[in-house]
Amino acid sequence: MEDVKVLDSSNNTTVFTNLDPVTQTYTVVKPLGSETFTIQRLYHCDICGKSFSSNLNLTEHRRFHTGEKPYKCDICSDSFFSNDVLIGHKRMHAGEKPFHCKICGKSYANNSDLIRHKRIHTGEKLFRCETCGKSFTKNSGLVTHVRIHTGEKPYSCDICGKSFSQNSVLGVHKRVHTGEKPFLCEICGKYFINNSALTTHQKTHAGDNSSSEKDA
Fold first, then answer.
1. What does the function comment of this entry state (predicted)?
2. CATH number of the domain within which 88 lies
3. pLDDT grade, residue 1 (50/70/90)?
4. Percent of the chain residues topping a pLDDT of 90
5. Tally: H helices and E strands in the chain
6. What is the DSSP string of 96-140?
7. Mean of the pLDDT values across residues 69-74?
């Protein structure tokens, strides 16, 4: 029998298990009569048991387990498990950061990144390594960290065979072979293989500006 989530008029949520497949409603009989509630299906992941309010959300969640990333960035060729994440990623290339931290003013391309960032201020680290006890603000950080203990490097370069613990690092590595440099310095027009190289380069311009100010 399929689980459904019934939302009552006071916005309290109760889980029931009787769903009319025809009317898609759940009827609760009360002393003074009956009342029909609006229902919302729950879709369950058969791998980890987590529940979702839509089949689309469940499909995207399953990609965490399968590693499937069907949405590819046409700028840097990185791939993502959902179109929403891809849209947020493209903001980094465009320099858009519409989500701002009210504590320190730092901005992010995605709201999810802002939420994770706020844990720096709160000190909250929900994800703990069972091997060494180290804790992380996000699960992906824990998953990557655990590979230090296991030595696992599941992402291999199909050109030279070198392996990496993270798919994102493999993506950057492949640019060594392709010569791709998608990160542009807007000051001098020079291109770089990754954002960290661009950031390091931009500091040289900051030094040039300081020298110019002293000369003036």
1. May be involved in transcriptional regulation.
2. 3.30.160.60
3. very low
4. 29
5. 6, 16
6. ---EE-TTT--EESSHHHHHHHHHHHHT---EE-TTT--EESSHH
7. 91
| Two structure tokens written together for 19 | 């769903």
DSSP for residue 185: P
**Residue 64 placed within a domain:** no
Copy the structure tokens of residue 85.
């994440």
Residues 143 and 192 in one domain: yes
Rounded distance between C-alpha atoms, residue 92 and residue 169, angstroms = 17
**Cα-Cα-Cα-Cα dihedral of 52, 54, 59, 60, to 10°?**
-70
pTM above 0.90, yes or no: no
- CA-CA distance, 81 to 166, in Å (whole number)? 15
Q: In this predicted model, which residue has the larger pLDDT, 103 or 39? A: 103
| Element containing residue 65 per DSSP (H, E) | helix 55-66
* CA neighbor of 179 nearest in space, from 77, 71, 93: 77
Kindly state whether residues 138 and 197 are assigned to the same domain: yes
For the chain, what is the radius of gyration of the CA atoms? Answer: 24
Q: Does a structural domain hold residue 151? A: yes
As given in the structure block, the two tokens for residue 153 are 């490097």
Spatial neighbors of 132 by CB under 8 A, at least 6 apart, are 149
Structure tokens at 31: 């002393």
Where in the sequence is the domain holding 109, given as residue range(s)? Answer: 73-124
Residue-wise burial string across 10-49, b where 16 or more C-beta atoms lie within 10 A, e elsewhere: eeeeeeeeebeeeeeebeeeeeeeeeebebeeebeeeeee
CA distance 94 to 80: 17
Q: Are strands 191-192 and 183-184 parallel, antiparallel or unpaired?
A: antiparallel
